[in-house]
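ok here's DUF3352 domain-containing protein:
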Amino acid sequence: MLNRALLSGETPQVARGKPNFRLLSNPRKRRIMTNYFYSNSYHAFSKHRTIFRCVCSTILLTTLLFSNSLWGQEPSKKDSEKKEKTKQAVETLLPKPIIVINFASVERILQDIDLIFELAERPEIAEIASSSLANVNDLEGIDQNKNMGVEMYLKTGLLPQPVFIMYLPISKVRSFIETLEAVIPGDEETIKKDPNRDDLFIVNGRRGESLIRMQDNYAHMLFRGGESEETLDLITTRNFDDPTQQFQNLTNNYDLAVKLDLSGVPELMRTTFLGFFRTAIETQLQQRDGESDSAYELRRMSGKQNIEGIEYFLNEAQELVLGGYIDTEQKRGIIDFLIKARPNSDLARDIKNIPGKASYFSVVTSRKNLPVAASASMNIARRERESYHAYLTYFEKQLAEKLLAEDERLQNTNSVKQFFGPIKSMVKKGHLDLFAQLVATPSRKFALIGGIKVTPSANLSAALLDLIERVDKLPDNKAKIFTNAETVQGIALHQLQPDIKSADDRQKRFLGGVPSLYVGADSQVIWFAMGTDIAVSALNEAIEQINTASPEARKEQRTAPFQIEFHMRPWLGLFSEEEIDQSGVMQVLDVAFEKDNDLIQMTTQPTETGVRTQIQVDEGYLKLLGLSISKQFDRNQERRARRERERQKKKAKDNQNN
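and the structure:
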């Protein structure tokens, strides 16, 4: 990155396998290099502000200007009144932050930007983004290799009030103050050192006053929005922990992370909040005018279980972390959602037991390059078993009322009970095992296939057949139903075809015609497929692969307890080269994705202290991001150039008229 190095007077260093740079300390040289850049490189792209102006300084600007914070305050009171204030605000503040937003460093963000536009083959845009630092005094005085962010504390009380404090790493105080003054809107605000303390700076402006506290080479800055004067004492009296040590795990693992620490919320405050929350939700669960009893029963059951789930989570969880980073070596993006359970809690035990035995469908869940694939083979917590069982009982009741006569419902051998019995038995045992896949066939059409493992039952297939025949006899049934329409690996499939005369364009393109639903069962699996007859062939191939696999292969767990995969390239295979060339969006997708860089994978697995849901995105999606931003940048440049030409033409015409 030549221009970036010239701009900042940098010397390359090796970090994360990429050049690392430090800003030039000589202001004169920095101005020379900045002018050089703007006159030779930047001017070629824009004479005005670009969409990437201040990209790298967004961390600083958004926090400084957030919600009328440092500069949008109520007028301050007299100094004599401030001296009379007690430390009540400090005493009523919770001891540690509830929410933390942590950026690893400015340099890490710059490296991410470099990679994204390097993949898009537009490195000059990364240079423009880097050069925008000149607009904020090159962030002089801020240590660009240390973490920064925002903490949210809570004041105690019936309705807790948030208090936001930003932390910024400082390399040189005087330079930092100059940078801050360059960021402050307007010319009337001033920043002065407190005459009685070396670690305190006072920000005075036309709309109020705020404070900056220096500690452990960090500036702690209070966000205010209608706060009382006691809140200012938070800065002057509180001893803050060193953010470098306090948030070391977040900085080491993520470029950007948000942490919610539930362990810092007192029991009384949490109980009070949950009480208000439960009351508010329950008022919404009353039966509505015109709502049927069955619809109300389902909505109320769902609402109550949601309330109980949230209460369980808030009482049992210790902290949540949402973090992301770009692996510059592997060239992929990672997003993590972690839940840490309280030690020895029910949640901790439930999470520890998530991994179940190998999936019955294991040999097909590991297939590569499918458009979409999902699988789950996991143990279900006791409270979740009760929830699933309640839903199954509800649907069993509704289906029985729809399909069975009153005397048949009293029989334990009716087809509805025989069908739901193995499913409910599997849930009661506490193990969930299923898969679903959207597969691309040789004809470049898609078919959806899947299966659900249940407790073995010799009556399952006969019960399913009876239910299908009863549905066919319903007076309001509009689907065409063909029992025993197909056979795959000795399993009869029943076809349910919608009452559609001809397929529309989307159905033809994606599925090859009017889709049908095929369902069948053997003694331990309910199978399904959706699509045209190619769906039957795809399901037959999957079942054959399972049946012919060795016992050792079938016992191997090949995926995470819960996993979803998405590949982009097979979707592009549905379109011809001519169609891709005629679509601007599809052209970008075609450039960004290849067969080996188009995966999005989401997995859920337990950790030592909780559970992690991780999303990995391949290089193609980072390249797509860079290409999309580049195209928008080019469009903006074209619009500006067009407006400039029109302005020049209008000016020339006016001169001629005069």
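+1. The two ends are 49 Å apart (CA to CA).
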